[in-house]
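User: Predict the complex.
Assistant: Input components as received:
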Amino acid sequence: MNKATLYQQLAPEARHEKGLSRLNQLICLLILLASITAILETEPMLRAMAPGLFKVLEAMFVCAFMIEYLLRLYSIGEDPRYRGFRGRLRYMFTFWALVDLIAILPFFLGFMTHNNAFLLRLLRLARMLRLARLGRFSQAWVSLADALKSRSHELLLSAGVAGLLLLFSSCCLYVVEAAAQPEAFGSVPRALWWSIATLTTVGYGDVTPITALGKVFAGLTAVAGIGIIAMPTGILAAAFSDALQKKSSDAEK
Amino acid sequence: MNKATLYQQLAPEARHEKGLSRLNQLICLLILLASITAILETEPMLRAMAPGLFKVLEAMFVCAFMIEYLLRLYSIGEDPRYRGFRGRLRYMFTFWALVDLIAILPFFLGFMTHNNAFLLRLLRLARMLRLARLGRFSQAWVSLADALKSRSHELLLSAGVAGLLLLFSSCCLYVVEAAAQPEAFGSVPRALWWSIATLTTVGYGDVTPITALGKVFAGLTAVAGIGIIAMPTGILAAAFSDALQKKSSDAEK
Amino acid sequence: MNKATLYQQLAPEARHEKGLSRLNQLICLLILLASITAILETEPMLRAMAPGLFKVLEAMFVCAFMIEYLLRLYSIGEDPRYRGFRGRLRYMFTFWALVDLIAILPFFLGFMTHNNAFLLRLLRLARMLRLARLGRFSQAWVSLADALKSRSHELLLSAGVAGLLLLFSSCCLYVVEAAAQPEAFGSVPRALWWSIATLTTVGYGDVTPITALGKVFAGLTAVAGIGIIAMPTGILAAAFSDALQKKSSDAEK
Amino acid sequence: MNKATLYQQLAPEARHEKGLSRLNQLICLLILLASITAILETEPMLRAMAPGLFKVLEAMFVCAFMIEYLLRLYSIGEDPRYRGFRGRLRYMFTFWALVDLIAILPFFLGFMTHNNAFLLRLLRLARMLRLARLGRFSQAWVSLADALKSRSHELLLSAGVAGLLLLFSSCCLYVVEAAAQPEAFGSVPRALWWSIATLTTVGYGDVTPITALGKVFAGLTAVAGIGIIAMPTGILAAAFSDALQKKSSDAEK
């Protein structure tokens, strides 16, 4: 396989036909498999059942991604912008090339953090970032982001209203409940935990007001929570409805 | 009653008038009664009160459905496609004929799984599948499915966003909470259980973060949950609104 | 005050001006006060603080409502339909006259159920039915009911889908969780309690699956719950949007 | 800096250019910092770490706000309405001047309530009211309030329906559950706490029905809760959609 064919197989923007090339389809599959492996590896029970398996799999995936990285670096020379040694160096600092590098690095850092449980967990999380590499192959999320951006002003405003309500309700419960439950409502930041759970209607129930006055304020907060959900939903519904009508009126012309 | 009349009574598509025939109305009623009986039979307290009743009822329902099945097989000869022995054999492998068969089979399988509690429960669940037979008599769900299908692209995209958020929030809580609560947050699949309960705003409260950092990430997850609910709602509202306007503009023409 | 003036004061339909007459405003206020009193009376702590007060208040409200009832009966003679003794008898069996009677009866029945706690609570609830009398004075709920009725077909369909999902998810959890938690998931009706709490995203958390398979099905149920909320919301949003546009296009003509 | 320049720097309405002046930007920043300090001060752990810091910071913020207040009072003379001593006195009783005063007062009241924990918490809450001062600098919330006001009739109606459902469901559970759980359902006001948590789909789970009949009514309440959320969301979606279309049709003209 020569350099030009390889370039067309690897770079989605160089391809004339629709859809992904065979090689990129394989890479997408590898990314998904590597992510699922990384998720399952976190479970101690599965690690205990097959101690070596996950290490071998991880090494294989990293190998594959390293080969892919090197092939990309080699074939990118077809692009006039990244020709020669200095061009390749410039390519290595583009956004997607850095994302590709991040997919490989955690493996090598893993040898250094052998004994720190927290750093080890953080590295496992870093492997999940490989999923971001899929963004290179799809532009579908762009249209959704546009719809959200077109109403960003209203959404920000309703977020601001939600934030003030959050602060206000946690202040109220701090004033009336702090004496009865100092552990859960002893300060505004502590009361915020309850406030978020209530205003988003999640309602864990690990912390609930026990005084009569606290229950009255909590009830009002819960009712306000409906508005907090109804506002962004209404704004988004209007945005999607508008985007739909524009598309159909464009089609008529 | 001759074969032609029977066929018109049994096959909804052969009927010229609107609505269901008397015989099919009776069959629908039997299906509903059989389902309710199957639901109530699962309750040990009711089984203890009337040990033999449920067995007798089940036998009666299966008898009725068997007679119906044989009558359908006999009368389907009126349809030129399923004439003769080989036509009937072909009919037996159509979708709805198989569904009808499934409604009868669990009864006979019941004698074989006498002693296995899990298989017995599974068979009871299979009886509930009889409700699917009602689908033969109604086409109402088709319009709803169409409305969903017309916006399947956006709905899939928002499902993808929801999936990534689910994965991301469970990864975050795995990193910060695994040390404090290894049982509930000791791996990403375990943290997913908490993540789903929070992002869908169900909020059981059987598992909640206890570290300060865990609460901060949990709060952000709960707020993101509003968006997870608002997006499909907005998309569906726009779809229904669009379907409504098309219908009224069609009526004007 | 003569009979004709009294009739115009009492019957909203006989009044030419807009709004409620002074007498009816007073009656509405009395109904609200009587309801609040009935609510507060149920609290044992308040009953202990003022043992006689609530009995006196209740007697006063019943007196007032009896006088109102008799005045309505007397003045209704102005309406040609209810003239004379037989006309009044016919009026006594109209819907709103029966509602008025129901507002008085619990007081007299109270003497008979002195010792039965359950019946006493039921009678207290009956007093709350007085609020239904306010329906006579307002027609605002008619427009909301119309909006709901115009989309009743879709709403019923989505209720049917919700019902099937409810049944299906409780069947699934009955099959996989009955062995581990016979008390909470030992039958489909028992599993329904968990199922409703999850699909409506209430999520009490008093009953949660503990097996791995149960958690997988519960997670899918929770995600389906978003659709259960999104569908009626979308249908209603479309209905309200449609009603709004009709009104504004009518105004343009 | 002379009086005229100061006036233009302080009064947003006197400024010809768009956006806030440098001085007002600084004041906004000070308000935000003062609020965050007030929130963090409520946490005993942070107070213990830096006992004097919060008092010094609070004194500094109050100093700054006092200087700002005096400068506003001095420069307002540029406005012909508030010229002279009597004009300034009149200005002191305008809405925003009173809000500014409230931002300073809690500091001086703090010396009097030294020993009462509840009053001290109330004063800390009062400091949070400083955030209201930001309202002077932004008119963004006006458009959102207008959108809500345009559909206030429908929103009030759905709030009324929600209120009646709330009352009705708590009455039902009072009747059927009071005997089994007198502490949680012993009166209608007590049952209201459960009712609000269920109808808003918060679902803390601290109080749940345990009788079979109570669970049936609770299930119906939870299902009704979907409608309670769907109605205001639908109304708001229609309102935002309408506001959007009006704006775009105005732009076309």
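The longest helix of chain B spans residues 212-252.
Let me know if you want any component modeled separately.
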